[in-house]
Amino acid sequence: MDITKEEEALMQTERELAEDAAWKRIQKSTFTRWCNEHLKVVNKVVDDLVLDLEDGIILINLLEALSGKKLGRYNRKPSFIQMKLENVSKALQFLERDEKVKLVNIDSSDIVGGKLKLVLGLIWTLILHYSISAWHPDEETSCSDKKKADAPPKERLMSWIKSKVPDIQVKNLTRDWNDGKAVGALVDSVAPGLCPDWDVWRPQDAYRNAEEAMQLADDWLGVPQLITPEDITNPKVDDLSMMTYLSQFPNAKLKEGAPLRPKTNPNKVRVYGPGTEEEGCVVGLPAQFEVETFSAGNGSVEAFVTIPSGKMNSIPLKFNDDTKKTYSCVYEPDVPGNYVVTVKFDGKEVPNSPFSVNVSDAPGDASKVTVEGPGLEPSGIKANESTYFEAVATNAGNGYVDVTIEDADGNKLIPNLNKDDTNVYKCRYTPD
User: Fold this and answer.
1) Dihedral sign from CA coordinates of 35, 39, 45, 51
2) How many Å apart are CA 23 and CA 16, to the nearest integer?
3) Closest CA to 252 of 208, 166, 171, 194
4) Which residues of 94-124 are buried (b: 16+ CB within 10 A; e: fewer)?
5) What is the pLDDT of residues 367-401, one digit of tens each?
6) What is the pLDDT of residues 229-254, one digit of tens each?
7) What residues does 288 pair with on adjacent strands?
8) Contact at 8 Å (CB) between 95 and 103?
9) How far apart are CA 364 and CA 402, in angstroms?
10) Residue 153: closest CA among 250, 236, 234
């Protein structure tokens, strides 16, 4: 039996309104964490937001913690429904009379009766009054104009966030945060150097991205994880839960001893050389390659090779202390087969890593390689002008051409070596 579009839409609506709908679960979890964060001062804990608020005691404790005021006498052991109703009524009357909080369609019987939607509505009212509305963007130079200061809380928060993360598109408080990168950008904006690699995070690593950024914010900015990484990356996350979490950032302060580090970009690392090429390496001959890090910032380089047996070995690195900040790497294959070379910069893999290298067991004949070109002439080469020569290894068999160039002072120059399909290597270099 086919289902019409109208019937499918109705079924979707029913799923969204169900008690176990994803957004309700996320919101309940987030609001519970918010309550517990504020209940720490009175050593109270909420396990189930609906059940624990029914007798009014926890609600009164929460209001006293939030307001810094005492609500007076109440039923501390409410064994009857009437006692529970009196406690909740006392809490609601305090909000309306003393705190000037407007409550819409929320009655004490709704809380005692455990109506999830209305319990969530009450807690959101508290969050809005005591956390979100308590912060005003006119305290920030980027949002100081009167128009922004008088805007609704969501609009004020969005305006502040956009001023902090201009490099990414943040148009909402739900979908645009699902890959975790926006959280990382916000953390690094509030504390530059705390999460500097957010822009090279992969969207498919959403959970890991959110987890890292949120843990850094928790540890060093004092921003508790009122929402979980799992929920923030859930397409069904709601904007009220996100506002509850993100509204903590404007007042965040960096703690002493935070692990700030310069911005690094592993995607800017270049790896080149026969030791990372698919064909050409031979058993018994050194397989060399270079790692260029000039444009990647400060970071450590690691290189590993996995041999055909599956064992992974570290590859020695030699820093050349040159203008391109290159590292020379070499490993020596001892059996034919497939080798896998992995290169990491600051703990993250660089572009095209890992490299698959097929090693053959038949060495070529170097005597059959011919070399010619203007770059080999004894005269006519000018400083700071590019020149080249070719090494023709078409009839030399398996192997690769390695080129070393030194200037008059013994300093090594880094050549640009390219091989075509006929095993002809074109070597280009620029004398200083």
Assistant:
1) negative
2) 8
3) 194
4) bbeeeeebeeeebebebbbeebeebbbbbbb
5) 889 999 999 988 888 888 889 999 998 888 777 78
6) 999 999 999 999 999 999 999 999 99
7) 330
8) yes
9) 13
10) 250
C-alpha–C-alpha distance, residues 113 and 64, integer Å: 23
Q: What is the distance of C-alpha 6 from the center of its chain?
A: 39
d(CA 301, CA 288): 16
Contact 88, 112 (CB under 8 A): yes
Whether this prediction's pTM lies above 0.85 is answered by no
CB atoms within 10 A of CB 55: 23
Do 45 and 62 touch, CB atoms closer than 8 A? no
Crossing angle of helices 116-127/239-246, nearest 10°?
30
What sign does the CA torsion over 54, 55, 59, 65 have? negative
- Identity of the residue numbered 183: V
Are the C-beta atoms of residues 317 and 353 closer than 8 Å to each other?
no
